[in-house]
């Protein structure tokens, strides 16, 4: 059965709304680990809209499970990642104006450059995963480039409307996962997964890890709201006026 890696980016998004110190993505990561997550994922974006450079080092040092660092292959980020030495890096495409990662990396393009960067990480013992759309040409190219793993983009599956469209997207993921298995690539998946849509993806043979962030952070905000309100009322009531 697939294991869960929790993405804590949006804990940092809430913190960055005030440029303050809370909520702390490391604290969230430790709670996720206690609850059974097999790893923690963070994305150091070039625009630093959520995770900051200092978070990367703190989270790497503070967690007991593995750190999966999502990143673009921009020179500045590659330098930081090589210095940090996370357990794993996942290369993603990045656009400044996107709300979230919009699609998989096109690994059929710019292959020489990509191969050289993959080599740099692998030579330091860092596992390299490529976030790709579930297409045969992307899986085959990832294998040729020497990646250890791929993360299949479940974005289109998550956004599909109607049973037929959902089934179509699921079939693409199943076919891609069968090919990654045949080629010996470790297989992860993620993007847009929720408690309502995760089961069919979790059942796909070969998918070992699921990277899930936004739906967990969203749910945590709601399930924690009563306790946070009560805590504040207690603090006010115990003021002794
Ligand atoms: N995988 C990748 C490569 C991503 O970029 C993201 C979003 O940061 C996720 C998984 C997690 O997606 P979500 O936040 O929708 O669960």
Task: Give structural notes.
By secondary structure, the protein is an alpha/beta fold. The protein has eleven helices and eight strands. The mean pLDDT is 96. Pyridoxine-5'-phosphate binds next to strand 8 and helix 10.
Residues in β-strands, percent: 15-25%
Q: What coarse outline follows from CA principal-axis ratios?
A: globular
Q: What ligands does this structure carry?
A: pyridoxine-5'-phosphate
Largest sheet: 8 strands, parallel, barrel
Number of helices: 11
Structural class: alpha/beta
Q: How far is the N terminus from the C terminus?
A: 55 Å
- Percent helix among the residues? 40-55%
Give the strand tally. Answer: 8
Strand neighbour order, sheet with most strands: 1-2-3-4-5-6-7-8
Low-confidence stretches: none
Task: State Rg.
Answer: 19 Å
Helix and strand sequence? EHHEHEHEHEHEHHEHEHH
Mean pLDDT: 96
Outline:
This protein has 241 residues and is α/β, with parallel strands linked by helices. It has helices at residues 9-16, 25-34, 53-62, 75-84, 111-123, 136-145, 155-159, 163-183, 198-202, 214-223, 225-237; strands spanning 3-7, 39-43, 66-71, 88-91, 127-132, 149-153, 186-190, 207-212. The N and C termini lie far apart (55 Å).
């Amino acid at each position: 059965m697939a294991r869960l890696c929790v993405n804590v980016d949006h804990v940092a998004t809430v913190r960055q709304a005030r440029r303050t110190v809370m909520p702390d993505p490391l604290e969230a990561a430790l709670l996720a680990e206690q609850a059974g997550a097999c790893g923690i994922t963070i994305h150091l974006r070039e625009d630093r809209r959520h995770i900051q450079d200092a978070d990367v080092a703190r989270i790497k040092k503070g967690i007991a499970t593995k750190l999966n660092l999502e990143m673009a292959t921009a020179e500045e980020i590659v330098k930081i990642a090589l210095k940090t030495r996370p357990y794993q890096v996942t290369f993603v495409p990045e656009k400044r104006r996107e709300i979230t990662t919009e699609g998989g990396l096109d690994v059929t393009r710019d292959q020489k450059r990509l191969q050289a960067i993959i080599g740099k990480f692998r030579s330091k013992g860092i596992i390299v995963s490529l976030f790709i759309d579930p297409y045969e040409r992307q899986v085959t190219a990832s294998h040729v480039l020497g990646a250890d793993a791929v993360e299949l983009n479940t974005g289109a599956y998550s956004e599909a409307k109607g049973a037929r469209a959902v089934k179509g997207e699921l079939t693409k993921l199943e076919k891609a996962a069968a090919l990654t298995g045949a080629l010996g690539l470790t297989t992860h998946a993620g993007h847009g997964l929720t408690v309502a849509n995760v089961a069919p993806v979790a059942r796909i043979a070969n998918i070992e890890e699921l990277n899930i962030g936004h739906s967990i952070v969203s749910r945590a905000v709601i399930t924690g709201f009563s306790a946070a309100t009560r805590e504040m009322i207690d603090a006010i009531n115990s003021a002794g006026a």
